[in-house]
Write a structure and sequence with these properties.
With 143 residues, the protein is mostly beta strands. Helices cover 12% and strands 40% of the residues. A four-stranded antiparallel sheet has the order 4-3-6-7, with no helix packed on it.
Amino acid sequence: MKKSVCLLFLLLLFSSCTMVFPLDTEVPYSVKGEMVLTENESDGFSEFKFEFKNKSEKEVYAFTVVFFLFDQEGNPVTTGKPNISAIVREPVPSGEILESSFSLDRFLNGIPEVPYRIEYLFVKKIIYSDGTEWNDPYGFKSL
């Protein structure tokens, strides 16, 4: 009995989370971004400026980007939504990089004096031009 409990413990100890939560061998994108403050009122006062690379063999039709906003002290934003989820509907051919931005004004109650930090940035969903989808609802695959 003691041996079987010890073997079970060792089996659980040396098994990985990928057995419970299988992960894709390769994430089909890379993404990076930052919040910038602008002075052009027509485009908004704050925006998320990002770079998305399509690492798949298919053309991307649209994708959903998710990230969290933190102030300079590392606290979640309280003047609006600390978590942002936005759909980007711009085609990205296979192997290409999209550099784009969108306004954050609709997510915030006010414009900060300094840009917020972007943390835990990932792509939640990719829709390809052929109608297929890739999903990572919690960002686990991109870790």
